[in-house]
Design a protein that fits this description.
Largest sheet: 5 strands, parallel
Number of domains: 3
Shape: globular
């Protein structure tokens, strides 16, 4: 009997590219490369354990002008994989020993994202149970259980203003009123009616007294200033002291809509096993984390040219190298290995070249892909094809003011043509130019939308030309406005 072939979980490369196509136009080579990288992670989980640790991710270097989709490809990829994803700018880091953030902080940030991601997933699993418990606690506040007929002295069985008008009041019996309380059977009926009202949202504005846990000890920051690592260390120190400080419950009178959220949060904290959350998050970061390093071309270049230490260029490259090779970083949740974290770097490389990076760093980005500049046809497709296309966004925005927007085919073509033309005449900022162009076209409509209720705006080539033609023709003016 043949051994059953293990099933690889997750999307196939073709499915990954198809998902990316919903949001990103063109750049098929880059999509293909990241799809293979993601699929290889799924494949790696199924190979023999002794070989699994030897299979390391093939880091990717994306080369291309701004606004062509480098960051968006990585962000969408991380969402497809359900992986912790962090985007950083290489130019924000300095060499160890100087004021500023050192590169290891990106791993600590990635772990924070991983813990938050897993916590949100586990919270979603227990949220219904926590909400039910919180509602029961609210019912206890609204209608305390009678200890005995003699002990019931409250003039109102609900414990909040206006309770005497609650549905159960009409069911009061003479015997209950004579005792100043209510029977067990009537208490159960009243509680059930209150529960239905609570679930339906009938009492959301009623106020109750709840005990809110507040931590004593420190007020405000441990240190009101700090840069880079110092600020990060102070933040961790403050969190540690706050966890050690005793909790002081305070009674507050809040509407039920706010009180419920406080009680739900308390129940989630009680039900959630944070040790398991942290353990799963650390494993997810180490096995499937993705770090996107943008503007890596800004730190390309060797030597300081005789003007002192270059702490933000070659020094940062040397510090990044161990992380990409695979090293361990101490975080507040534990030690994390970066050996199987996927690093995706990108840069325009207008001034510098990938070969200006130090050789060791170049070798750690074995996969390189050059993204193409966008054409006028690409701009047209960007305006209509993605699920989050700008045309769909502006139609939805104007619908909130009861203004109907219709994009004619020639209008879309003219928008794309103007964006492409301005990119050619001035600085090429890729698809971001569309935001500038379409915002300028909709400037008057957006400003007067509240006075145009019920009207229809047709965006055709004439409409676009009336608002952009003079600006596009005047190259000096377009540099300032578009």
């Amino acid at each position: 009997m043949e051994a059953q072939q293990p099933v690889i979980e997750g999307l196939t490369p073709h499915e990954i590219v198809a998902e990316l196509d919903k949001f990103i136009i063109g750049q098929h080579r880059a999509k293909k490369m990241v799809a293979i990288a993601l699929r290889n992670r799924a494949r790696r989980k199924l190979i023999a354990e002794d070989l699994r640790d030897e299979v390391t991710p093939k880091n990717i270097l994306m080369i291309g002008p701004t606004g062509v989709g480098k960051t968006e490809i990585s962000r969408r990829l991380a969402r497809l994989a359900g992986a912790p994803f962090l985007k950083v700018e290489a130019s924000k880091y300095t060499e160890v020993g100087y004021v500023g953030r050192d590169v290891e902080s990106m791993v600590r940030d990635l772990v924070d994202i991983g813990v938050k991601m897993v916590r949100e997933e586990r919270t979603a699993e227990i949220l219904e149970r926590a909400t039910e418990t919180a509602n029961e606690r609210l019912l206890d506040l609204l209608l305390p259980r009678p200890v005995s007929p003699a002990a019931a002295v409250s003039p109102s069985p609900f414990g909040f203003p206006g309770a005497e008008s609650a549905p159960a009041q009409s069911e009061s019996s003479d015997s209950d009123d004579a005792r100043g309380g209510m029977s067990e059977e009537r208490w159960e009926r009243t509680r059930e009616k209150l529960r239905k009202g609570l679930v339906s949202g009938a009492f959301e504005d009623r106020e109750v007294d709840v005990h809110v846990r507040s931590r004593g000890g420190l007020q405000g920051n441990v240190i009101g200033f700090g840069l880079g690592n110092e600020a990060e260390m102070m933040g961790q120190l403050q969190q540690m002291i706050e966890r050690m400080a005793p909790q002081k419950p305070q009674e507050k009178r809040l509407p039920i809509r706010h009180a419920r959220q406080i009680l739900v949060d308390e129940e989630v904290d009680r039900l959630l096993d944070m040790d398991k959350v942290v353990a799963e998050a650390l494993d997810r970061v180490q096995q499937s984390g993705i770090v996107f390093i943008d503007e890596i071309d800004k730190i390309a270049g060797r030597g300081s040219g005789g003007y002192g230490p270059d702490v933000s260029r070659e020094g940062v490259q040397r510090d990044i190298l161990p992380l990409i090779e695979g090293s361990t970083v101490a975080t507040k949740y534990g030690v994390v290995s970066t050996e199987h974290v996927l690093f995706v770097a990108s840069g325009a490389f207008h001034i510098s070249k990938p070969s200006d990076l130090i050789p060791e760093l170049q070798g750690r980005f074995p996969l390189r892909v050059e993204l193409e500049s966008l054409t006028a046809e690409d701009f047209r497709r960007i305006l209509v094809e993605p699920d989050n296309a700008l045309t769909k966004q502006y139609q939805a925005l104007m619908e909130t003011e009861e203004v109907r927007v219709v994009f004619a085919e020639d209008g879309i073509d003219q928008l794309a043509s103007c964006a492409y033309q301005v990119n050619q005449q001035t600085e090429n900022i890729g698809a971001r130019r569309l935001h500038t162009v379409i915002e300028k076209v909709f400037e008057d409509v957006s400003f007067n939308a509240n006075r145009m209720r019920g009207q229809t705006v047709v965006v055709d080539s004439k409409y676009v030309n009336e608002r952009l033609a003079d600006i596009v023709r005047n190259e000096d003016l377009s540099k300032f406005i578009l």
